[in-house]
Specification:
single chain; 2 domains; 10 helices
């Protein structure tokens, strides 16, 4: 159940990126293996959330099934303390927490680098000209490049034509007898070094036409716009490992330093949420009884949304009042543990009122008081 939940939830979150990746396969001719690698490398950031969420969902659903089929009632009748269920479930939660810590501190930073490098390699494959003689290459948006012949020994290009429509107010075409083209893998600047050619430029705003002959001409264009909108060449704080975050803190201002420190503690607090959910998942699963097959999924989603809202609220409050970072990051877990402990007190008592009935009763009682 846990593995099924993990795969489904992670796939749903990765689904947003798949549309762009399918476009790369269909329209850009990218290898399917590269797309599979992109999907794999984009998973660790989502696993930060889907690991604890899958644990919560699977625990509530499984215990709820036991309760529905009166397995829990049979355990009570046999004199078994239901709190003994805490030990195997807590052990499972600890193992998932360890996996989560490995994911947040090691796999996530490494996968972010690999995802970015794979994208850059795809871009490089799309604009290589060694095997594209006599072909109009339009891999770069609004730019068309034609190479008549490639000298493989000297890596020089003969008969170069470039049509550049990137600026809506300026249209220019460049032709040259020969030249070199190189790509900076760090900045993604595509550099043209051309010889013996002609530049024709039409400035639409002033309706000005220029025709310039040149012996040597160099210009460049940046290809970062070929990356997906969610991808940046610079690492974001959550993509950095602990060492990189500490190094960034040395030169950061006070506000950024707080953000970097918060990311370090979130790499620990988010995996620890799995352990916190143990205290809440056991009583909710046992007391779910006959509320329906999908109530466990609904409870899990609601609880995780509440947890995520708590996390966002405490982070914003922490930034405002500059509270200690370890307190800011752990408050959501502490609240979840506190609620769970209060529910564990009456775990062995037989309650004929379902959780949803209690919620409806309190909701109606609240509105009665307002009236």
């Amino acid at each position: 159940m846990f593995l099924l939940s993990l795969c489904v939830l992670t796939f749903i979150l990765v689904l947003a990126r798949i549309g762009k990746m399918v476009d790369l396969v269909i329209n850009k001719g990218v290898d399917l293996m590269d797309i599979i690698l992109l999907i794999v490398y984009s998973s660790p950031p989502y696993l930060m959330f889907t690991l604890p969420m899958s644990f919560l969902l699977s625990t509530i659903v499984v215990l709820g099934r036991f309760s529905t089929e009166n397995e829990i009632l049979a355990l009570k009748a046999s004199g078994v303390d239901l709190k003994s269920l805490f030990h195997p479930i807590a052990l499972f939660a600890v193992s998932i927490t360890i996996i989560g810590l490995i994911n947040s501190t090691i796999l996530l930073p490494a996968s972010s680098d690999s995802f970015r490098n794979t994208l850059i390699n795809i871009i490089k494959k799309g604009i290589t000209f060694e095997d594209k003689e006599g072909v109009f290459n339009d891999s770069i948006p609004r730019v068309t490049i034609y190479i008549d012949k490639v000298d493989l020994e000297s890596k020089s290009l003969i008969g170069i034509f470039v049509s550049d429509d990137r600026d809506k107010d300026i249209k220019q075409t460049i032709s040259a007898d020969k030249g070199l083209i190189s790509l900076d893998p760090v900045s993604l600047d595509l550099l043209f070094m051309l010889e013996n050619g002609n530049l024709q430029r039409w400035e639409k705003t002033g309706d000005v036409y220029r025709n310039i002959s040149f012996k040597d001409y160099a210009f460049s264009m940046n290809l970062t716009n070929m990356l997906p909108n969610t991808t940046s060449l610079r690492k974001r704080p959550y993509e950095m490992n602990v060492q990189e975050l500490k190094k960034a803190m040395l030169t950061a201002n006070a506000g950024d330093r707080y953000e970097y420190l918060l990311e370090i503690f979130k790499k620990i607090s988010l995996p620890l949420s799995t352990v916190a959910f143990v205290f809440l998942a056991i009583p909710l699963g046992i007391r779910r009884k006959i509320e329906g097959n999908f109530s466990g999924i609904l409870y899990s989603l609601m609880l995780f949304i509440i947890y995520y809202m708590l996390m966002a609220f405490t982070e914003n409050a922490g930034r405002s009042i500059k509270s200690p970072v370890f307190i800011t990051s752990l408050i959501p877990n502490i609240i979840i543990v506190g609620i769970g402990l209060s529910m564990l007190k009456n775990l062995n008592s037989e309650d004929h009122v379902t959780v949803s009935q209690k919620i409806r009763y309190k909701w109606n009682n609240y509105f009665e008081k307002i009236k």
